[in-house]
Amino acid sequence: MAFRFLDLPPEIRDQIYHDVLSCDQARRPPADDDNPASYHFDLAILQTNKQIHHESKKAFQDNVFIKITTPWSESIEHISSEGRVPIIALGPAADAFGLFHLWIWIDAPGVPPRGTAYSMIICLDDLPAFTHMWRFSNLNHQGLNPHLRLKLILQDPHVPDRKIPKALQQRLLQPFGLVKNLHSFSVHGAKVLPSVEDALKEEQAIPEPSLEECLESATALKDVGNNFLQAQDYAAALQSYTDAFAAIHITLSGRKRYIHAEGYYNLRELTTGSYKGQNGHLARIILRVKLVANVIQTYLKTEAWEEARFWGKRSINLFRASFDPHHADDLEGDFERDWAWVRLSAAMGFPAQNAMGKIFYRTALASRALGYKKEEWNLVHAAEVYSPHDEIILRDLREMVERVNADHKAGAMS
User: Of 213, 215, 211, 214, whose CA–CA distance to 265 is shortest?
Assistant: First the structure.
């Protein structure tokens, strides 16, 4: 007997429609850490027959889409590549798409229009990624927002002039609290609730934390993480370190770390607090190195050797690339021949030298646990260069040399 889809109970059909046509089910994970997620909607089901079209259309209409329009094509590329915001539709497809609840219109008053507007469609769940990207861009390019005009237009795409529920208005508008100091800003349409608009504008009026405040906050969170580490609450320690990175505009996604707002930290010398007199960029680098050393230590305590080795190697390779770009991904090789950059960088007096020594040594411990003997040898020697008075490192180095010599002697005798 042939299977008939319409013989299924209505609630089962509704679940199938949701599985096929909802944003959360259509979302596909990114191919790698450098690309955004993507969406694949199987719209063929809408063309099956009139009844299925009528039933399934509601599942698609339950999605909340957002349209972004700007006169600059490069902005659309920036949103996708830098912000890693998944795009559902671009160009003519986005222009023709009318089922959006929010229209974000961005331009610059006084700048002659180019004659063409560029649009993209995104899902509501990706709106925070868009506003965070905008926030970081403004920090990185000081003075960007005062040249921009933002207009937000709310609408119910299915019933004109119907009021959008308060909870949805909040989800659509509150993320723009991160977008501050604009040339002009306005909200229109769909019976916007004054309480929602007022809360948004109050958030926009809160100034960005100063460089000093960001660094002090990150330092305090690092210290909280250290307390959790000592108390053997390793999950809480890692979360505190993650929060510390976020306080200085560094975000984590899996094994990818994104460093934002470089221009913000390059602005000036710090004038208050424990970092007074230091350059903001250098102070952040030192704090980053200390945080990485603590993250590696936390992974060692949980015997997460691969994670400890990964984050240690990542930091070492990034550091090495500034001195020896041709061997930036190689932790093996001959130490005296291929690791001259270690002695060079140590001689230059790198400000976070002690923390960098800890990264070398703790990565060596992870390499040892995983059986990477050549890596271990080089990393312990590098740690000794950076921390020449650390008794633990010196004792470990002596014992490692004795083990290697004993192995060579045993091999010669066999």
Answer: 211
SS3 109: coil
Lookup result for tokens 């002009």: 184
**278-to-265, 285, 347 alpha-carbon distances in Å:** 11, 11, 21
Sign for the CA dihedral angle at 385, 248, 305, 315 comes to negative
Q: What value does the CA radius of gyration of the chain take, rounded to a whole number of Å?
A: 27
Contact 318, 288 (CB under 8 A): no
Helices H, strands E: what count in the chain?
A: 18, 10
The pLDDT > 90 percentage for the chain reads: 57
Distance separating alpha carbons of residues 360 and 385, to the nearest angstrom: 10
Identify the pLDDT of residue 339. Answer: 77
The overall average pLDDT reported for the chain is 89
Cite the DSSP H helix spans in 371-390. 373-386
Exposure letters 38-58 (e unless 16+ CB within 10 A, then b): ebebeeebbeeeeebeebbee
**Residue 241 near residue 182 (C-beta atoms within 8 A):** no
Neighbours of 200 (CB within 10 A): 23
Q: Which of 133, 305, 294 is nearest to 222 (CA)?
A: 294
Q: What pLDDT is recorded for position 330? A: 64
Instruction: Give dist(CA 336, CA 351) in Å, integer.
Output: 23
Backbone angles phi, psi at 39, to 5 degrees: -125, 140
The pLDDT value given to residue 55: 81
